[in-house]
Design goal:
single chain; about 500 residues; alpha/beta; 3 domains; 9-stranded mixed β-sheet; 5-stranded mixed β-sheet; 17 helices; binds iron/sulfur cluster
Length: about 500
């Protein structure tokens, strides 16, 4: 059982006790609050202090206090100093909580990238293994999975051309709000939001026209397209048709390697909409159950049942979709390890090409955290282990992986695919191999220096909310100039 200790405070003192120390504490206490002042004597806390001569870490829970001290090496560089303090804190928290985090004290988002980078720098497998197992205290299982993913990604990354890019279009609307969601998505059932959808689609199509023109001017080759959200199928059939037609007109689909649309939720995904996606060239869709338990669906604020998901999936197959992803979430409120097993088994029995297993992430903007509901979760680590076991046994391979802050037990999100069905867009975006041109509210265009490993990355942000995106649309279009300037600069510094 994971118990969310919402009341514990994290207190940090000294330059080396910063961001990394906070995140080390959050591996064990994801919902803890960062406190500026020392809490009262009876309050629970995690304290990390870095003084010039002494590091101190301390945990007080239920009146019991445990601590450790260490003398930092005098000549240590700032990074080493920070790592030494985090290591001390991690060791204490492992002991106090009895939790053995599968990723050890690794706090980064992209573990697989460490392998690509170390390989590129000439490191052999023993050195990489040592780095994962000793330096970060990862389990051998997580290391092995990271290597498996790196190996699967290698040919995809090797085939990437310097002027490749992908295009993303965002639909920030949903039929209702899920309790764990922190995304800016608006509920289309609200009258004020419904009125925004039509002008939003008009602006988005205009922005996609401008995106195509920008890509052409910069000499970029669009490799993959992705319509995400929110829930793209929350648009009406007519709006969805216009958006899909706009994508098809702007980007030569015969040259596109992959075109994903998140059909997302069955409560707004009709047969007509699934046919439109197929007709206008989507090659991969997502139908995301999150769980196949009706009770858990209710707990998270979904207005559909597991049977609706099954119907939607069968309809998608019937109208000709041959590459379908299904998302599941481990750790949803009210779910159990056995319940999660049933969800996994149901998803596997449907035989989709991709299954993505997320671990619940507690975002401060979500209703789950805001309302402090559901402070107890069944054993989420056991759920994630189960997903590895069942999906591997069913012939799925892990092909991409990322971690987020605030994820229960610092666990991961993993995309699994049948052989030959790895989603290219997910690999490209995670490994930052090429530019992603984003259109729509909340979108962020990520510009990557062509052909350079860890070259410059710049971002151009769109307005976050649909209303401001529509109202200030001229500025959205004007910002496309930034893409051109980025590539001009890159060609000057070649
Ligand atoms: S469907 Fe996705 S984006 Fe929409 S409310 Fe639920 S979690 Fe958020």
């Amino acid at each position: 059982m994971t118990v969310l200790e919402n009341t514990i405070k994290i207190v940090l003192r000294g330059a080396a006790a910063g961001y990394e120390a906070e995140h080390t504490a959050r591996i064990f206490f994801p919902a803890a609050e960062l406190a500026k002042t020392l809490p009262g004597e009876t309050e629970d806390l995690v304290l990390a202090v870095a003084h010039s001569r002494l590091d101190l870490v301390l945990v007080r829970r239920g009146g019991a206090v445990q601590w450790r001290v260490a003398r930092p090496p005098r000549s240590a560089a700032a990074k080493e100093r920070e790592f030494a303090l985090c290591r001390l804190l991690y060791g204490l928290l492992r002991e106090v909580t009895g939790i053995r985090p599968p990723w050890g004290m690794m706090t980064g988002v992209r573990p697989v990238r460490i392998i690509h980078d170390m390989r590129a720098a000439g490191a052999g497998e023993p050195a990489i293994r040592e780095h994962f197992l000793s330096h970060f205290d990862c389990t051998p299982g997580r290391y092995a999975m990271s290597v498996q993913i790196a190996d699967l990604q290698r040919p995809v990354l090797a085939a990437a051309e310097p002027m490749d890019c992908s295009v993303y279009a965002g639909i920030p609307f949903c039929p209702s709000r899920c309790s764990y969601c922190s995304f800016v998505s608006r509920t289309v059932g609200d009258c004020s939001t419904r009125a925004l959808v039509e002008p939003y689609v008009e602006c988005l199509c205009r922005e996609l026209d401008a995106t195509r023109a920008t890509a052409q001017r910069c000499g970029l080759n669009v490799k993959t397209l992705y319509i995400g959200g929110g829930t793209p199928t929350s648009l009406s059939a007519d709006q969805l048709r216009r958006l899909m037609a706009c994508m098809a007109e702007n980007f030569t689909l015969s040259r596109i390697k992959e075109f994903t649309v998140e059909a997302g939720r069955p409560d707004c995904t009709s047969e007509e909409k699934l046919r439109i996606l197929k007709e206008y060239g989507a090659t991969r869709i997502s139908i995301n159950p999150q769980t196949f338990s009706d009770e858990v669906l209710r707990n998270i604020g979904r207005r559909h049942t597991a049977a609706d998901i099954l119907d939607c999936y069968r309809t998608a197959r019937r109208v000709g979709h041959t590459n379908i992803n299904m998302d599941l979430i481990a750790g949803l409120p009210g779910d159990t390890v056995e319940g999660f097993r049933r969800s996994l088994e149901t998803a596997i029995s449907l035989d989709p090409e991709n299954i993505t297993v997320h671990t619940l992430t507690l975002k401060r903007a979500s209703n789950l955290v805001v309302e402090h509901r559901a402070a107890e979760y069944d054993d989420v680590a056991a759920m994630v282990e189960l997903s590895h076991e069942l999906l591997s046994a069913a012939g799925y391979q892990p092909y991409y992986l990322y971690r987020q802050k605030g994820t229960l037990q610092n666990l991961e999100n993993v995309g699994w695919c049948k052989p030959g069905y790895a989603c290219l867009y997910n690999i490209y975006i995670m490994e930052e191999v090429h530019t992603i041109l984003s259109a729509g509210a909340g979108g962020s265009t990520k510009l990557v220096t062509p052909g350079a490993r860890h070259g410059k990355i710049e971002r151009i942000f769109n307005y976050k909310y649909p209303a401001e995106y529509i109202d200030r649309f001229d500025t959205v279009l004007a910002r496309k100039e930034g893409v051109k300037q980025f590539y001009e600069q890159c060609s000057r510094t070649d």
